[in-house]
Amino acid sequence: MTDHAPPAPDVPAPTRLSWVGTTIFTVMSTLAARHAAINLGQGFPDFDCDARLQACVIEAMRAGHNQYAPMPGVAVLREAIRDKHSMLYGHRYDADHEITVTSGATQAIMATVFALAGAGDEVIVLEPCYDSYLPSIELAGATAVRVPLDAARDYRVDWDRVRAAITPRTRLLMINFPHNPSGQVLDAEDLRALEAIVSATGIRVLSDEVYEHIVFDGLAHQSVARSPLLAQHSIVVSSFGKTFHTTGWKIGYACAPAALSAEIRKVHQFMVFAVSTPMQHAIAAYLADPRPCLDLPGFYQRKRDRFVAGLQGSRFRLRPSRGTYFVLADYSRISDESEAAFARRLIEQHGVAAIPVSAFYRDAVDHRVVRFCFAKRDETLDRALERLSGI
Description:
By secondary structure, the protein is an alpha/beta fold.
């Protein structure tokens, strides 16, 4: 036995990844549970999915669909996705070579970034943005170039700023509409502006469209798949979690030209290989009826309108929500606290959880705005409104 302790083994250095955006979501949810607060923070419904969809899962399991699915996804689901896009947006993807079923949209996004960007490359994102974007880019070894949306214009895109951010190192432009957290949507003019950028630069677009079926006031979702030019330069990502109230199933997909899909699948096969087989068969069967997708805007618009009406006359000022199941609330007439501090006090003193919009930025940005989720039962919304309207 020696007098001196042996040298300590090499221990990997702590991660050098600089993002911490997910922390605030965990903190707020934990705090909400501790205080028994009404959780309008996290973006998931507090109601169940259609019993008919659940029956489809049971039927699929009883039919023996319980082993590994094909790596790109079961054929019947890829065909159903093809038909849905063709019906809604006029672009017909090849189900065999251009559609890949993924473990939720988040995995589709990460697989796409890993496939198309790496060390020395740049990826443009629009801030505020969903919290997985920056980590995906950083894990791929690429650099995120952040272009702010115009908060004074309800988070519209300044396409001139996007164009100015493109360099010879740019490999990808990531967009998300309907937009989380702002609820902003694209219009036909936005698509034309994006077409001009793609035509001039050849840049590829990763379009996160998970809220594609939640668009309000008679507006139509402006998928990039509506444009033949953009469809040939884009990866369209979506998810059935938001559409069918099944966020826990984690079934998403990526639609892209065959050459891009082939690269994405190279990553996908070693990231998860394949996703839940019975759920894929169940969703394919359920998609035979288009009504659940077509009826979703009206379903959520009624909830949005209920929430907005309930805060009329309060000191919150609500930003327009044209899509998603979120609405932003300016609280500057209530407090000059930071967004994180106000959101914490909202839980502790008033029993309602929200998410500070600053959580969707890399750097400290504070507009005194929080995000509420209205994908809740009417009785949940009414209880929350009673508390919020009195602040």
